[in-house]
From TrEMBL:
It comes from Thermithiobacillus plumbiphilus. One of its GO terms (molecular function) is GTP diphosphokinase activity. Belongs to the relA/spoT family. The keyword NAD does not apply. Keywords: Transferase. InterPro entries: ACT-like_dom_sf, ACT_dom, Beta-grasp_dom_sf, HD/PDEase_dom, HD_domain, NT_sf, RelA/Spo_fam, RelA/SpoT_AH_RIS. Residues 90-189 form the HD domain. Residues 1-43 are annotated as: Disordered. Residues 430-491 form the TGS domain. The keyword Iron does not apply. This is Bifunctional (P)ppGpp synthetase/guanosine-3',5'-bis(Diphosphate) 3'-pyrophosphohydrolase. Its EC number is 2.7.6.5.
């Protein structure tokens, strides 16, 4: 670390130098700063540190508080001359962040990391210097929360996504990084009034979508509530003001209601000899607003804004108190949740019940032990509660499992926005709890399907699932799961993910694995198709793919801007490179035809087997089927698109000889292909059933039916049916024409 002071600055006095030497290391990573040899500005007055010192003194040893003060001195000197937009010295911001964490009673490295969290980005201090002075642990924390201020991105959206990715990946190494980040965001939200309105709204929306859900996912309830309140106030100031005024106007009556209900609960506990603390509160403004939005209610219609929390000494007492409360006030059916038996994903435990209150208003009651209350308030931060005796192992384990899941998502590849999308899905607070065949409880987000469950169990099970049983009944894979469902997945080694699954999966893990599998398949299929196309083009010019030497590939790779022959073959298969042009480059001595393109040998045609996958697409406009005369057209990004020879959509493409490929159906083509037929029938009872029965008797399945409006005595009915070839279609059409009620049958194209 190097400061260049003006000539009038003095060296630290001997007393100041002694102050920077703690008597004994308070933490194994603490090292006394080597500051006496440097010329530094006068250190800031200790009064700036007083507020933080007061909180730290409640749970830290004196030498640790002194170590935190020395960190403050170091940070203040590093930020010397820097001011926030409000005009106050910049060091006030890191101090405030540290105090937020101190109120959660985090350990000394967390406090030091908070005080120094901006020095790498905003000053000349390096990570190595921080590691030398404060230890590797503190340096890693500071580096983990450093913003990407010096990196340039194409769009602001991409920059935000990249920054978010870095924060989440840093969590996988030390989850205290995100605690510092949340505290940093909270203080920025508290002091955001000096910013322009557009920036305030952007930051507030990001806070509601990302940071508040993260705080909830980690169980840090006070930070989550304040983030939501501040973001709501900046994002919708008029709505926040109106709700605030409405709550203030009715607060006198509400306060009396809370007092009377709390007194009744406390009296009942005394009668039963149960010792416990009863807390009454009102729901916060954003929570009330969410309920108004979700249920389309006015403020006056939101009645259950009273909530009570009962804290007792043991789990058994929790259930005893639940019975007492249900005897005192009648419970509302379906509004009881047992988070003690089945904790939330962030380790939260409590009994929740909603009752009919004495004044006709519903009231919510939460019953928990002291340990559960500590986890509920501090969440994963409870793991670092100083000398807490018993750490929050459940919350810590749950949080680390979620962070590891995020790391797995990032390793699947994809851009930052795709990663951000997956993470936002996983931040939804509503959970569904289902059982595996062995009775294990699994937590999934609301809206999760059988496919999400399969991937949650194991990636291989998700990749090979073909069916699902829910509560011993076979159900479609897209079935939404509900609390308490028993789920079993049926797999087959030959099965693979379906692109259609992306339309209904709800978890980021399922989406990332499906995309990765499809991407790998696409590359393999494109490479195989590229080989076939290039071999065909080379044969038309008198060569073969097997005869191409490695030096020939290396010679042409720079021309097509690819790094390997495999990439070039994939580009050909996906239509991003033309096989005739590549063949001409590989065999430059061949004679060219008109337009510089080699003459094509019509004796070589590409055989369509129906199993090429993504590299070959059958056009949806004309639905070609085996037996139809067909033409193939090379389309960038889609490979070869096959049309019938008389499709009206290809007239313009016929002029582009460099883009169409001679194709024909392979003699061993297999599979079923969709085709559209239109019938005109007499309007009569049961006619649709008769047509469908006849189509089924001919061995075909109906994919879609469209019934036109009645025109006099006749109605048009269009079917999309699956056929194996042209002869199969002819049999179906002959059978339909044989019915007396059918006046016309025709195949539709275009």
């Amino acid at each position: 670390m190097h400061f260049i002071p003006p000539a009038s600055e003095n060296r630290l006095s001997s007393s100041d130098a002694a102050l920077l030497q703690p008597p004994e290391p308070a933490h194994p990573d603490w090292h006394a700063p080597l500051l006496p040899d440097l010329q530094l500005p006068d250190p800031p007055g200790p009064q700036a540190f007083d507020a933080l010192r007061e909180v730290l003194g409640q749970y830290m040893e004196p030498d640790e508080v002194e170590a935190a003060y020395l960190t403050f001195v170091y940070g203040a000197m590093a930020h010397q001359g820097q001011n926030r937009r409000s005009g106050e010295p910049y060091i006030h911001h890191p101090l405030a962040v540290a105090r937020i964490l101190a109120e959660l009673r985090l350990d000394l490295p967390s406090i030091q990391g908070a005080i120094l969290h901006d020095v790498i980005e905003d000053t000349g201090v390096s990570k190595e210097e921080l590691a030398r002075v404060f230890g590797q642990s503190v340096a890693d924390l500071v580096d983990g929360v450093t913003k990407l201020g010096k990196v340039h991105f194409e769009t602001s959206e991409e920059a935000q996504a990249e920054n978010f990715r870095k924060m989440l990946l840093a969590m996988s190494k030390d989850i205290r990084v995100v605690l510092i980040k949340l505290a940093d965001r909270l203080h920025n939200m508290r002091t955001m009034g000096v910013m322009i309105s557009e920036k305030r709204r952007r930051i507030s929306r990001e806070t509601l979508e990302i940071y508040a859900p993260i705080a909830q996912r980690l169980g840090i309830n006070p930070i989550r509530i304040e983030l939501e309140e501040l973001a709501f106030a900046h994002l919708y100031p008029k709505r926040w003001h109106a709700l605030s005024e409405a709550i203030r106007a009715s607060r006198g009556n509400r306060k009396e209601v809370v007092t009377r209900i709390r007194a009744a609960i406390e009296e009942r506990l005394r009668q039963e000899g149960i010792s416990g603390e009863v807390l009454g509160r009102e729901k916060h403004i954003y929570s009330i607003y969410q309920k108004m939005q979700k249920k389309s209610l006015s403020f006056s219609a939101v009645s259950d804004i009273y909530a009570f929390r009962i804290i007792v000494d043991s789990v058994d007492t929790c259930y005893r108190v639940l019975g007492l409360i249900h005897n005192l006030y009648k419970p509302i059916p379906g509004r009881f949740k047992d988070y003690i038996a089945i904790p939330k994903a962030n380790g939260y435990q409590s009994l929740h019940t909603v009752l009919f209150g004495p004044f006709g208003h519903p009231i919510e009651v939460q019953i928990r032990t002291e340990d559960m209350h500590r986890v509920a308030e501090a969440g994963v931060a409870a793991h670092w509660l100083y000398k807490s005796g018993e750490s929050s192992s459940r919350a810590q384990a749950q949080a680390r499992a979620w962070v590891q899941h995020l790391l797995e998502l990032q390793q699947k590849g994809g851009d930052s926005r795709e990663f951000l999308e997956s993470v936002k899905m996983d931040l939804f607070p509503d959970q569904v709890y289902v059982f595996t065949p062995k009775g294990k409880i699994m937590s999934l987000p609301q809206g999760a399907t059988a496919v999400d469950f399969a991937y949650a169990v194991h990636t291989d099970i998700g990749n090979h699932c073909i069916a699902a049983k829910v509560n011993d009944q076979f159900v479609p894979l897209r079935t939404l799961l509900k609390n308490g469902d028993h789920v079993e997945i049926i797999t087959a080694q030959s099965a693979s993910p379906n692109p259609g699954w992306l339309d209904f999966v709800a978890t980021g893990k399922a989406r990332a694995n499906i995309r990765m599998h499809l991407k790998n398949i696409q590359h393999a299929e494109a490479e195989a198709m590229g080989k076939r196309l290039l071999d065909k083009a080379l044969r038309s010019m008198g060569g073969t793919l097997e005869a191409v030497q490695e030096q020939d590939w290396q010679r042409i790779l720079p021309t097509f801007r690819v790094g390997s022959a495999t990439e070039l073959l994939e580009a050909i298969g996906m239509g991003n490179a033309y096989p005739l042009v590549v063949a001409h480059s590989l065999l430059p001595e061949q004679v060219e035809g008109e337009g510089g393109v080699p003459e094509r040998d019509k004796t070589f045609s590409l055989s369509i087997r129906g199993t090429e996958g993504m590299a070959v697409t059958l056009a949806r406009c004309c639905h070609p089927i085996p037996g139809d005369p067909i033409l193939g057209f090379v389309t960038a990004g889609r490979g070869i698109v096959v049309h019938t020879h008389d499709c009206p959509n290809i007239q313009e493409w016929r002029k582009r000889r460099d883009k169409w490929v001679d194709v024909q159906w392979d003699a061993k083509v297999s599979g079923e292909y969709p085709v559209t037929i239109r019938t005109v029938v007499e309007h009569a009872r049961g006619v649709l059933a008769r047509l469908a029965t006849l189509i089924a008797e001919e061995g075909s399945n109906i994919d879609h039916v469209d019934i036109e409006e009645r025109d006099g005595l006749y109605t048009g009915i269009t079917f999309t049916v699956d056929v194996t070839n042209r002869q199969h279609l002819a049999r179906i059409m002959r059978a339909l024409r044989s019915l007396p009620v059918v006046s016309r049958v025709q195949r539709l194209k275009g």
